[in-house]
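Exercise 7b. Backbone tokens:
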């Protein structure tokens, strides 16, 4: 049985003001980063597969069912 690791986290971009490289309403994968959190930021993986810091206020972190997380991760892994 496939299980999704708890470290997977996702967020929806709700504002791209001053960050035109973000797409509003797109679901992004978030990497857990305590230092980024302390700065009020999220470490987000973009379409290039690279991770960047963005203000957390630009996103809403969402809890997704494990099946949905697994499907999103499969898409990410197959697109790389």
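Sequence design result:
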């Amino acid at each position: 049985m496939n299980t999704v690791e708890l470290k997977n986290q996702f967020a929806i971009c709700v504002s791209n003001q001053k960050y035109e490289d973000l797409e509003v309403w797109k679901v992004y994968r978030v990497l857990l980063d305590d230092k980024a959190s302390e700065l009020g930021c999220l470490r987000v993986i973009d379409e290039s597969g690279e991770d960047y810091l963005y203000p957390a206020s630009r996103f809403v972190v969402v809890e997704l069912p494990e099946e949905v997380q697994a499907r999103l991760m499969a898409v990410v892994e197959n697109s790389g």
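Instructor comment: The longest strand covers residues 9-13. The chain has two helices and five strands.
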